[in-house]
Amino acid sequence: MPHVVVIGAGIAGLTAAYRAVNAGHHVTVLEAEPTAGGAIAPATFDLPEGQLTVDAGAEAYAARSTHMTQLLEGLGLANELVTPNPDGSWLYLPEVGAVPAPKLGMWGIPGDPAAAEVIQALGAEAAVRAAADLATPMDAWAKRRAEGQPVTVGELVADRFGPVALERLVAPVVAGVHSADPNDVDLDKIAPGLLDKAIQRGSVAKAVADIRAAAPPGAAVKTLPGGMHRLIDALLDALRDRAEVRFGTRVTALDPATRTVTTQTGEQLTANQVILAVDAPSAYDLLTPSTQLTKRPAYGTGVALVVLVIDAPGLDVHPRGTGMLVSPAVTDAHAKAATHVTAKWQWAGQAATSLAEHRHVIRLSYGRITDPLDGSAPGHDTAEADLLAMATSDAAAMFGLEHEQLQAGLVASKIVRWRRAMPLTTPDNTTRIRAVQEAARTTNWIQVTGAWFAGTGLAAITQHVTGLPLNPLQ
């Protein structure tokens, strides 16, 4: 059988290995870390009343993803999928504080500028400006599209809906999901087809409404009861007797001429195909000796997640729905987003209240791509004590609780930091990442995949992995 070597045991690497063994290939997975999962990881609390486990990384996937559905069906998990509480999320905004997020939208771009929650978030004057999109011709944007000019989320929204809509509706979502400034994010990267539909309909809001109406009915996201991290365990189980998965094994060199993979111990493996399921800077380091790459992709500032286990009766009524996204312009909170885990997922709520009546889990995230590189902004490099103090203060303010009461009810906490899993989405870095992809392709031996190459989210990653050509050279 052809030998496929997969480097990296995150969701991309394990999915690629699963696909390769199903195609009849001999597969070896090499992972530098002692565990699998990458950005899918559990946070387990050993509490006096018992154990409580929630996700400390990716917690769900886009339900529209047929590739994820097929993967879960193959693993025997599709019948277990659950959807979130339909109450929806909120926004935390300057001047107005916490308000419900618009129900009809895409990446915060409103599909109905006249909706009550849009007016509440923007104010009457800015809402009138946003509604101008419905009657303003798209001619200038049609010209830009015809000329092939790139379009960022920020410039389109500011032009069509006004700067207040950009700051209060779109920036919190893009910053919360991508840790990025909407002015740096390519519109086609996160909302493919939106601009073309908007040109056709003469309005971005109308295009958003059309796309949302055409989406399959049901919840936008799904997960597994117990947490999305169960997917990693299922993939490892599926590979256990069909592939060799080795942890603590760092790859130090790739040689397309001899088709050999070298590890840190000097061991050499001969491979008919290599799949690099690592971040773009790591892929660059392995590819550079045998290619013409000259500019290394850059890591962003990273993010930190603070998971709080709290006994708080005030959270029983889910005062902010399933959580909230925070405008970067807010000055009285440092978090970019907060998820009320036990409100969002019924399984989590049941697990928590089985331990204590008013027990809740809140997860707050810190760090944006727009943060200075010196680590001065709250995020990946912030000390644990400082992060915990911020998290309790932010959670109280954002969820309408007394800070002293929240602190008194704090049962446990965990801090998880992510850096390599977060691709920097600036145009320059995107160009460098594409160069890495092209360099790998020219070897006729190496494929690259993962969030840096596919985009953020499990749906994007599994779609990218599914599209990899699995035709090992004999």
TrEMBL record:
<dbReference type="InterPro" id="IPR050464">
    <property type="entry name" value="Zeta_carotene_desat/Oxidored"/>
</dbReference>
<dbReference type="Pfam" id="PF01593">
    <property type="entry name" value="Amino_oxidase"/>
</dbReference>
<dbReference type="InterPro" id="IPR036188">
    <property type="entry name" value="FAD/NAD-bd_sf"/>
</dbReference>
<dbReference type="InterPro" id="IPR002937">
    <property type="entry name" value="Amino_oxidase"/>
</dbReference>
<protein>
    <recommendedName>
        <fullName>Amine oxidase domain-containing protein</fullName>
    </recommendedName>
</protein>
<feature type="domain" description="Amine oxidase">
    <location>
        <begin position="11"/>
        <end position="298"/>
    </location>
</feature>
<dbReference type="GO" id="GO:0016491">
    <property type="term" value="F:oxidoreductase activity"/>
</dbReference>
